[in-house]
Amino acid sequence: MAAVHVLQGSLACIALFVAIVVCADGYIVEPGPVVKATKGEVWPKPRNQTTSQHFSVIKADSFRFQATNYTCDILTKALDRYQKIVLSTGNASSRRVAKSRGFSSPVTNVIRGGHRTWRADNNFVVSVAENDYLEDVSVDLKAPCEALPYLGMDEEYSVTINDYSATISAFSVWGILRGLETFSQLVVLSDDGSTLRVNSTTIYDGPRFSHRGLLVDTSRHFVDTRTLVKILDGMAYNKLNVFHWHIVDDHSFPYESRVFPELSAKGAFHPSMVYTQADIAMIIEQATLRGIRVMPEFDTPGHTRSWGVSHPELLTACQDQYQGKLGPMDPTRESTYTFLATLFGEVIDVFPDRYVHLGGDEVGFECWASNANILEYMKQNRLYSFEMLEETFIQRIVDQIDVLNRSSLVWQEVYVNGVRLPNGTVVHVWTGNRQDLLSKVSVSSSASSRGRV
Fold it and tell me: Where are the beta strands (DSSP E) in 292-383?
């Protein structure tokens, strides 16, 4: 059967049962993209923005960002990076635009009829001092730089562009980085492809969420370091601030450990598909320069099959119908915790962020249930469910991280399974009825101070 619906604008469409929608005039369209791209808009949308139609023109050969107060290596490199970004605006398209409109080349300040084309625009700001260009952007960092980004860092900033003056101001270098990104988004190519322009604008902005992360899984699909830096660039363009590095998993172990080099030597996809200590230091440095935290995830006790290639003793030997397979980490062996304490001691030395993600998701209990030693351990220690066994493991690992003066994150399955979480543990919600689960975690956190989001 077919159903008839009346949509907004009195457009009648017939929805067939095979999910094909045929609309009156549905195939009569105008040329151009379906979604119109914005031009000179800021992403994400700022808290407060006032924009005028008046604009200034940027002179490419003299444009620069100028630090007027505190400065540091992070700021210096950011100014250089964003100067290149601003001056590259429209480079690829300007040749096409200029050529389509009769210009022989996309040189700055193309002359048409003896006049620069943008001068004829009534919104062009005429300078009393007869200086036609915006040449300097003052970057006012009001406090000394911090060395590393962190959860809850100050990322507020202001951008003021008025006539031929422009200022980016913030109390932290992280706020300055966000302000530089905003300024670069405000700069657009003129319609004739001849020059860069920016509207008079005032912005006061800061993030709604202190953790704005992107997870990258380099175990299932190895990602080379050059591509990782491009991902960091993309994060900076979107003002994301946490690179959640899911660096190892069942499929491969590309992290090259100093204390256990055999983990990657045997567990990586290929000897070339590893991250050396120098690679990781470089990624952390590049992330820091963009105001991005690097939060590593070493998933436990599940998602650890690649660990077992070099250290099968860490994992549970399955029995019965699963004979010959290896399951989650064996939580009954003291040697498991000794190994993890050593590895995590190295991890917190390599990754400076406050938080270490311990995983805890999708722990299958089949292998534990098949292993006679596991069952006997549970009986001797009065553990009446595999959730209680998982709790024993998680608490030991979280305590190890706490001793190392760091904080832990775990996936929501740990909480859903009823594991009592040590104080300060962060629950990472990712699937299902997320809003409902967030509410439950928050309530239990307030009531018991055992876990938080």
Answer: 293-300, 315-317, 326-329, 355-359
Residue 65 sits at φ, ψ, to 5 deg, of: -95, 135
Q: Per-residue DSSP letters for 8-47?
A: TTTEEEEE-TTS-EEETTTT---SS-SSPPPSS--SSPPS
Rounded Cα distance, 117 and 24, in Å: 43
211-234 burial, b for 16+ CB within 10 Å, e for fewer? bbbbebbbbeebbeeeebeebbee
Angle at 419 between CA 151 and CA 416, to 5 degrees: 80
The catalytic residue among 156, 362, 387, 391 is 362
Q: How far apart are CA 261 and CA 223, in angstroms?
A: 20
Q: Which amino acid is at 378?
A: M
Q: At a CB cut-off of 8 Å and minimum separation 6, what does 359 contact? A: 297, 298, 299, 300, 302, 303, 410, 411
d(CA 266, CA 103): 59
Residue 256 annotated among the catalytic residues of the structure: no
Distance between CA atoms of residues 96 and 100, nearest Å: 6
Query: Hey, which residues does 188 pair with through a beta bridge?
Result: 197
* Helix intervals (H) in 33-128: 73-87, 91-100
How many whole angstroms separate alpha carbon 27 and alpha carbon 215? 39
> Is there a cis peptide before residue 149, judged by omega within 30 degrees of 0?
no
Q: Is the dihedral of CA 15, 21, 27, 33 positive or negative?
A: positive
Q: Are 92 and 165 in contact (CB under 8 A)?
A: no
Q: What is the pLDDT along the chain (453 residues), one digit of tens a residue?
A: 444 333 343 333 434 444 444 455 667 888 888 888 888 999 999 999 999 989 888 888 889 999 999 999 999 999 999 999 999 987 644 434 444 444 444 344 433 333 456 665 656 665 544 567 888 999 999 999 999 999 999 999 999 998 778 999 999 999 999 999 999 999 999 877 778 999 999 999 999 999 999 999 999 999 999 999 999 999 999 999 999 999 999 999 999 999 999 999 999 999 999 999 999 999 999 999 999 999 999 999 999 999 999 999 999 999 999 999 999 999 999 999 999 999 999 999 999 999 999 998 888 899 999 999 999 999 999 999 999 999 899 989 999 999 999 999 998 888 887 777 777 788 989 888 888 888 877 766 654 444 444
Rounded Cα gap, residues 38 and 23, in angstroms: 28
